[in-house]
Amino acid sequence: MTVKLSASVLAIAAVSATTAMARDNVQVTGSSTVLPYSTIVAEAFGENFDFPTPVVEGGGSGAGRAKMCEGVGTNTVDIANSSSRITQKDLETCAANGVTEVMEVRFGYDGIVFASDVNGPAFAFTPADIYNALAAQVAVDGAIVANPYSQWSDFNSAMPAQEILVLSPGTKHGTREVFDERVIIAGCKETGAYDLFLATAEGDDDRAKSRAANGECTKLRTDGRNVDIDGDYTETLARLEADKKAIGVFGLSFYQNNTDKLRVGTMGGITPSTESIASGEYPVSRPLFFYVKMAHLDVIPGLQEYIEFFVSDDMAGPDGPLAQYGLVSDPELAATQEMVANRTPMGPLN
Amino acid sequence: MTDATSANVPASAPVPHASSLLTQTALMKKRNAAETRFKAYGIAAICVSLSVLAVMLWTIFSDGVSAFKQATFTFPVTLDPERLDPKGNRERDEMMRVTTIGYTNLLNQQLVAYLAERDISTEGVDDKDIAAFISRDTPARLRNMVLDNPDLLGQTIRFEGFATGRIDGYIKGRVTRDTAERDTNISVAQLDLADRMIDEGILSAKFNWSFLTAPDASDQRPEAAGLGVAMIGSAYMMFLVVIMVLPLGVAASIYLEEFAPKNRWTDLIEVNISNLAAVPSIVYGILGLAIFINFAKFPQSSPLVGALVLTLMTLPTIIIATRAAIRAVPPSIRDAALGVGASKMQTVFHHVLPLAAPGIMTGTILGLASALGETAPLLLIGMVAFVANYPAGPLDGGMLDPATALPVQVYSWASRSDPAFIERSAGAIIVLLAFLVVMNIVAIVLRRKFERRW
Fold first, then answer.
1. pLDDT tens-digit profile of A248-288?
2. Which CATH class, in words, describes the domain spanning A121-243?
3. Interface contact A46, partner B, CB < 8 A
4. Which one of A2, A17, A42 has the shortest CB-CB distance to B386?
5. Which of 248-287 (A) contact B at CB < 8 A?
6. pTM (2 decimals)?
7. Where in the sequence of chain A do the CATH 3.40.190.10 domains occur?
8. Structure confidence by residue, pLDDT tens digits, A8-22
9. Would you state the CATH architecture of domain A21-109+286-342?
10. C-alpha distance from B179 to closest chain A C-alpha (Å)
11. ipTM
12. Which CATH number fits domain B228-450: 1.10.1240.10, 1.10.3720.10, 2.40.30.70, 1.20.1330.10?
């Protein structure tokens, strides 16, 4: 009896699965940095349109793009949020699975800030300071040595005499890329360590040598003064509250939600804010994207409306929820809106 | 002779025998001491686990109980037809042109006007600060009310809406004047105004039903987030898991225990079942993604796929529990049934299975309880997501609509940036714990009531 029942239920489920293939909600996956803002848009979209609220998933930029590239069909996702640009490898996977036309939409910027406990001393960083504090090897008197510093004041007398401890984004984090590029490598060049690495770098040509030098620059110390956090910013905050002398790396929006617990440090003298990021003054920021599977545009109801709503002035404009949430509006938003309306697929990566 | 002398010795000499029970020798003392020590270790172990449990429950409850209360406004709202239905023809499509932004402005102005009318001082706060009191969820609720019932236009209704997370936190003691000074999202002047509004009865904390019924909400409106979709998703999955896992598990166990020949193949199957019970649950998620979504093309994020994955995950546990229950039925019962001429199948279904049923039930409920608390396998099949629409009813294909689950909601709230979500997350744990406690109590009651010992 039960056997028959469950068999028939399975059969019914299988039949209804095939009929339900016509999915009526937009499905979005990808970057956990973009996720909160993406849910804000999805919620507003569901409220103001007659389409169902899109389903938004996190999981990471790379994982999201891979999921989008799995193929075409209503059992695959429509949009991948990403806090870094799509790679050639992703595009090749996409093409191999029949996802030939992808629309790239850049909708804003995210700032990355260095913050300490609100009751601790104020910090004014430069990329060189962060590099000296965190690198495995630093330049001292024109020679590369293993990082000897244990306090911030050891290499910069203007900084507080506080033990070095930085909670930096783990290698799985989309934040890590911009952290490496804009802070660590920039600091490596400022302190002169880059030139020393380059002098001894092995490689066939200048490009290979500079890549090797960059690789040396981004090696961080492993003696416990740099802690990689692979979780999200709430984990970083919890670690920072447990150990008040730590410096945490956060997204600007996360910091703005927790100003009662965190004190933000300046970078090169610039205080991070939506204004200083939009103007490009604050150096540590990255563009945010989402990628749309164009084959789904006329198949999934509401997809075109959702992406148009996502980049509309009401949402992504300088006074909209994007800015309120702590992300930074894209100065070229009008061009993006036009591109979305015209359904222009992205060209080859350059 | 020797007997007589030896018999005389104890009588004449009161020196006790070396192995008397009445006096303790050094060895016995040692053994008794060892026993006392062991008991102390046991009590200590229990005390440690109990105190850890107490700390855990205390943190969860101290953080989470407040999620069941919510700061709520009550004030009269005049629904101006000029603004909410500019064309004046009460057509739903026309009225939908007025977005939530229009309703937000209406509510903000009405609140400011009402404060002025009640003569409540708004010292130190401007209109924008007052508008920041109203949850972003509130205009959407008002809009839906008006769209569903256009006759409300032109009337003045007593409208109840949520206050934003920071004001809510102030009423619950999470936000204080000290934190507000450093917080860019709220000012001390706003808290003073909140105090005046509480005194005037405009703002109060009420029991928050919507925490149990409302769907998830985005980062900007923690006050509106609820467990509705998650509970429906969990209920659908548990229902599907029961109807799939019970027949499969019981049939497999009966065959293996009563019919299968004992040979190398059944040994191999047995080893595999025990192995599968110990496989990390995420592996079932990977399997589910490959089979049910990529191959069978079931929809992502649907409770059906979730239930299939959880069924695979709980099946080995249920088989092991069921086999143990069947084995506990004494062979004399089977022999007696076979002896009066019952067939093997009659023996099993008329005698063995009814006697094993309580054990099977307890095993199943415990398996379900572990499935209810599982997040990892759901991660890969798209159920760890933001889902704001309720799935349809179970007969309208709701099992194929996107949904989340209770543990998933705990996980996704715990990683949100607004501190108000910590309270929500702990509140969701309380709800999940309540379900688990109920399931475990049912399992114990069933066992007590129907268990037979031979």
1. 999 888 898 888 889 999 998 899 988 888 888 898 888 89
2. alpha beta
3. yes
4. A42
5. 253-254, 256-260
6. 0.82
7. 21-109+286-342
8. 555 545 544 444 456
9. 3-Layer(aba) Sandwich (3.40)
10. 5
11. 0.81
12. 1.10.3720.10
